[in-house]
Specification:
The protein is of the alpha/beta class. The protein has eleven helices and twelve strands. It folds into two domains: 203 residues, no CATH class; 84 residues, no CATH class. The strands form four sheets. Strands 3, 10, 11 and 12 form a four-stranded mixed β-sheet that branches. Strands 4-9-8-5 form a four-stranded mixed β-sheet. A two-stranded antiparallel ribbon has the order 1-2.
Length: 324
Amino acid sequence: MVAFFSEDELHDMVLKMDAVEETIFANGLARLKKPVLPLVNMVQFLYLTGPFATMDEVISRLTKSVELEGVVFENPQEMLRPYTAYLQEFEVLKGKKRLSVSLPFIINEKQEPVAKRQALELWIKQQILSQELETINSMLCEPCGCVLCCTGPNSEFDESSGFKGEMKQRFFEIPLTESEIDLFPIDRVDTSQSRTMTAHSEPSLRIGQKLFYRHDMALYHWRTGWSLILPEGAACPHLLADTRKCRVYAERPAVCRKPQIFAYVLEKTADVAKRSDGAAIPVHMARNKVLAIWDCLYVRKFQDAIGSYVEMSGLEPVFKKSKT
């Protein structure tokens, strides 16, 4: 039996679907509408221009709602508290403390070193934005139902994940820490040869007569550490095919918690610089951007909200495809 619906009925169905989506993504969308960086800029200005010895003194004064760029922040103290440790690094500018971390050497896109104060501001923004986006990602990712990050190229999940078309990649790499590899009870490849290479070395690692990514899914110990390699058609062993849920979601690896909306205030380069004491330190380039991965379903769906979030944060949005 075929059911036919009127235009009004179809319209009502679409509204109901939108209402459901609005509910399940409500927390993440609410966070996108109120980014923390405008508040960070405000308290930095108050601290540097006011009679405050510490950042905590500034934050403790924020007992009422604050309106910035037409957005009302009802409880600025609560929003800023998770980032207190980073905000306290601003105190070095008044000589109240020493930096608790070693800053990278930061250059602009013209390869020129940036001033020390600007370098500190950029580093703090990168850390705070990364932390905030990790929280937002969790709010948007779990209800999305997408499994593209959990599967290899051209897997059986691709179409249901929203990605269609032949992918150029022959494998996907999921970097893992030493403490995370025991989450995956699968074969491991740890040889003297693998430890001198990376997953993207040319020529590629061979195991027997075949390239490593032509073998079944496995853990590999590279020069850069461990990673899970998902070859074509593979899926993470913790991805449940019937529900498309992760069986170890609460204990999932750190890389699986990272956002598909990345803080791109700073970009690490392959270069190193030498401090005055002779120590080698990494070189980062100031980008002042936020990178959103277009493959991700919620990035596509909420492109406008993400763009507004980035612009309110005083940065430039960049939408880019990762899996092709």
